[in-house]
Amino acid sequence: METRGIFLNISPLDHRYYQSNKELFDSLSCYLSEEASVRYCAKVELALLKTHLALNKLDSEQLIKAIDVAQEKISPEIVYQEEEKTQHNIRALVNTLKPLLPEDIRHFVHMGATSVDILDTANALKIRDAVQNVIIPELQALEVKLCELCEQEAETPQVGRTHGQYAVPITFGFTVAEYVSRLGKSIIKILDFSKDLRGKLAGAVGAYNATSMITSDPYELERTCLALLELKPSDHSTQMVEPEYLLRLLLEINTAFGIIANLADDFRNLQRSEIDEIREYFSPTQVGSSTMPQKRNPWNCEHVKSLWKAFAPRVMTFYMDQISEHQRDLTNSASGRFVAEYIAGFAAAVRRMNKIISGLSVNREQLLTTLEERAGSSVLAEPAYILLSQQGEADAHEIIRKLTLKANTEHITFVEAMKQDPAVWEKVTARLAQITGQNADTFFSSPANYRGMAAIKAHELAQEWRKRMQGLNEAGNRSR
């Protein structure tokens, strides 16, 4: 077998990203490599062969064992050598398989099938297995880590931000809870769509022409064959499986990719020098800049976003592969091969995000300083306006807005400005006591006191999604 240094490879996935994801990419290669593609096609061909034997009552234990042995012996290298002669990948596979089988059953190989029956069915199998055996566990690990961080920081005060400006107080756990909820939903959908990938054994135009020459019930032949592979038939086939089964899965993966990129971007911004509320792990030997020794760049978060930028636009190709002329053309032949790269790029981003969350440090002191000193009491203008309005003051918003301007102009706190208007302070104080039972001086002494349901929501979502991820594990164990 020819050996080749990885640094001679063209795709960054095959050298740079392989180096940092060896275990992950080796796991994916069992499903998405070219060798895996050949083996999955052979698996489909041999499932069809077993179906023919059963149909003809020839499925003896000895012959089934011979088929299983042939499946182990198939060599992608020999298939490729044969393809140089045939210029056809599936006919090369068929020619390679036949000599590995008992002579009296060789004529059944590929009988009734067209190439895309094998290719589309094998594609559904390998992507299903890659998603369920590699991608879902990676996503679950990330979701569980986010749940842990969410719960750990559920009570940690933080200022909320909208439009790049200070808004009202939340907690850092609440910030994380957004991604717990968004990613959790996407994981469930990815798993569901992977379970609904379909195969076909419907022939050259999908009308069962060939298999109708073999059996009076071509539907049953197709169902039996696909059941051996734990797949269902496409509801309608041309020469190809309906593309929407795979398209929906890839679009949901792209949705999850965007969620992870959004999380990486938020965390990158929280590491800005002027914010400094969190830090990703930076090892003692790590270098942030070739010229500025003090730099501690948030490069892992940037890396995740950069991977998203590279791979997310490929969704346009997924949409374009939805269209095929009449019963089939070959315009998805090259583009469809890059789905494996897309899944690998997504897996690398998920693994990197797992690394970020595992090593993340939360600067609670800085979070509180930002809220209390930088944002300050001005973020309490909202509860003051709400309380004043409930006391029947129609112009409450305008009154409070002017008090915030007064505080800025006179360089005093918003609370001090509010107290300079005794009528406003009295109404706000009275309503606060009536609604919450709290003392106004105590409540307005710290913005951290005004956080609504942030901490409660963080605890709730962390607990809910931890249980749901555990439920996926239990369901997976039962199915195995």
Description:
The structure is a single chain. By secondary structure, this protein is mostly helical. It folds into 3 domains: about 30-110, Orthogonal Bundle (Fumarase C, Chain B, domain 1); about 125-205 and about 240-360, Fumarase C, Chain A, domain 2 (Up-down Bundle); about 375-445. About 65% of the residues lie in helices and about 5% in strands. It has 21 helices and 6 strands. The chain has helices spanning about 15-20, 20-30, 35-55, 60-75, 75-85, 90-95, 115-150, 170-195, 220-225, 245-270, 300-310, 315-320, 335, 340-360, 365-375, 380-390, 395-410, 415-420, 420-435, 440-445, 455-480; strands at about 155-160, 165-170, 200, 230-235, 280, 360. The strands form 3 sheets. Strands 1-2 form a two-stranded antiparallel sheet. The longest helix has about 40 residues, at about 115-150. The protein is elongated, with a radius of gyration of 30 Å. The two termini are about 35 Å apart.
